[in-house]
DNA sequence: AGTACAATTCTTGTATATTAGTTTAAGTGA
DNA sequence: TCACTTAAACTAATATACAAGAATTGTACT
């Protein structure tokens, strides 16, 4: 599935991306190939080639002869990402309703239980992963894993925002798990109108609470011309 | 817009991609970094880094220590690409209908005339580009250029198929231009139901005539388990 | 004290050499 | 003739060296 191949390059790619996504490298921060190369104890070439991939996901920006920088989160792109996902996922869910199998049912139910457990334990990153898994399962059911991976590629900005929000506002988790369960029930009952409504509502929620997150991490975000004209 | 940067790497990227898209390098063919490096009179490093980008678009596949190969067209991925585009573009067009400006009108009308001209002159690549431009204009109108570029990234398989088809079946061009004009008229008239219908029909046509194209270029395509169980 | 300039340092871009794995084919034995 | 082994040739993977530009810092001059 992943086109990053053999060992060292993939290692570098995974590690660097992990650090960006989990905000160990923070938006705006300057990193350098040599820095990482010593930090990861690798030559500069695999680092460089990993960075090319990551650049394409718009998680870093490399300015020649100057430096490599972690990009700030672009809320405009996050909106576009949501738009795309809102266009696709309702169709995915409607189709999934007609294809549900016992195995998938079991997986989803396990996932839902895990979500509730994790929500109580206050582990934002685990919760994020479970949330992702939940949605992904329906794509798999439709044999649309390719589409899912495309979405992930394009939704880096949106996903960074979501991770940040989970860190900040933990009360939100209850709402999300509850919605997930309602969606699952609607799919089981093949209640098409309800599925469509719930999914749209649910996905729309992804970009809620912008204000809270923006206040908590103001310099993690790119300044767009429209927002914040004080 | 493009994240390919400075001169040499971008040169390499553009040239290699051009040759793949226009089938100068044909699907299945083995290429090698050294070969291209001498062919383009460049060092191996920029080539290599360009190839990493192209690999991500699934136009080539690199097998470590063995070789780099032009991928065959994956019709399953093409279908998924169409699915995504069918999900998005109707919404784009509906929104565009409410935002039409005189300048965009002029551009589209120019484009339509060019299409008709090019269709007569039998220039498949030019026609493909005009077709692309036509659709892109509506995305721009909605400030959704980002979405358009995502789609292009994911639709390489579909686009290669479309280019091939234009080479093969030239009678199709009349149908396409006619549909484009109908779509434009519907947008101008803000006839939402018609827009929705026409766009879905039009996009669905993208993968028509699989048989003809497959017969003409059988070994350009990946063998998927479902097709051709003779 | 402030500004302009120059040199040093740091960064990525590119080329080349080395390494390691894969493939191919030749060669050897039965 | 065939199966197996082995070596040679080719490929991408990685490391390293060098070049060119950007940024910073220090210094001299106003």
TrEMBL record, chains A, B:
PROSITE patterns: HTH_GNTR (PS50949). Residues 6-73 form the HTH gntR-type domain. Keywords: DNA-binding, Transcription, Transcription regulation. Pfam families: FCD, GntR. The keyword Magnesium does not apply. InterPro entries: GntR_C (IPR011711), TF_FadR/GntR_C (IPR008920), Tscrpt_reg_HTH_GntR (IPR000524), WH-like_DNA-bd_sf (IPR036388), WH_DNA-bd_sf (IPR036390). The keyword Membrane does not apply. PANTHER family: HTH-TYPE TRANSCRIPTIONAL REPRESSOR RSPR (PTHR43537:SF6), TRANSCRIPTIONAL REGULATOR, GNTR FAMILY (PTHR43537). This is GntR family transcriptional regulator.
């Amino acid at each position: 599935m992943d086109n990053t191949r053999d060992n060292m390059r993939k290692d570098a790619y995974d590690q660097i991306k992990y650090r960006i996504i989990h905000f160990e490298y923070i938006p705006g921060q300057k990193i350098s190939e040599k820095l990482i190369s010593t930090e990861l104890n690798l030559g500069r070439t695999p680092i460089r080639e990993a960075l090319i991939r990551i650049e394409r996901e718009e998680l870093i920006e490399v300015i020649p002869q100057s430096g490599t920088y972690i990009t700030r989160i672009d809320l405009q792109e996050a909106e576009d990402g949501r738009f795309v996902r809102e266009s696709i996922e309702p169709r995915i869910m409607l189709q999934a309703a007609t294809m549900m199998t016992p195995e998938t049912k079991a997986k989803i139910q396990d996932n839902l239980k895990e979500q509730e457990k994790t929500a109580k334990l206050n582990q934002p990153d685990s919760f994020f992963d479970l949330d992702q898994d939940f949605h992904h399962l329906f794509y798999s059911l439709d044999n649309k894993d390719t589409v899912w991976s495309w979405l992930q590629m394009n939704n880096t900005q949106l996903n960074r925002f979501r991770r940040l929000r989970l860190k900040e506002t933990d009360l939100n988790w209850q709402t999300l798990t509850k919605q997930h369960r309602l969606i699952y029930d609607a799919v089981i009952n093949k209640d098409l109108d309800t599925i469509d409504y719930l999914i749209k509502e649910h996905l729309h929620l992804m970009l809620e609470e912008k204000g809270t997150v923006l206040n908590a991490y103001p310099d993690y975000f790119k300044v767009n011309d429209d927002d914040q004209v004080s």
